[in-house]
What we know:
binds zinc ion, mainly beta, two-stranded antiparallel sheet, 18% strand
Amino acid sequence: MGERKADIWCPRCKWRPRPESRWMCTPSCGTVWHTFWTRGVCPGCAVKWPHTQCLACHEFSPHEAWYHYRDPQPGEEVSDPASLEAE
Ligand SMILES: [Zn+2]
Ligand SMILES: [Zn+2]
C-alpha cells in the first residue's frame, strides 16, 4: 500500500524490458543481471549505473527516466497531504 507501481519502458522507443532481459556491467566487473530488479545497481560491484542502455534502440537514458508513474485514477485512493500531521 502507498507504493505506486511504475511502468518501465525506454523513454526513447518505448521498448519494455522482459523478465529475461539482461544487462552487463562493463567494462567494470562483467556481471550480467537484470538492471531493473536492482534499480540500476550492479550486484557484483555495487556500482549504481546512472544511465541504462536500451536493448532495442541501444540509446542510453537516465535510469530513472525508465520509470513512468501513472496518475492516480478517479476512485483510487489518493493520499491526502492535509491528513499528514506536522510535528
Ligand atoms: Zn529504446
Ligand atoms: Zn559491476
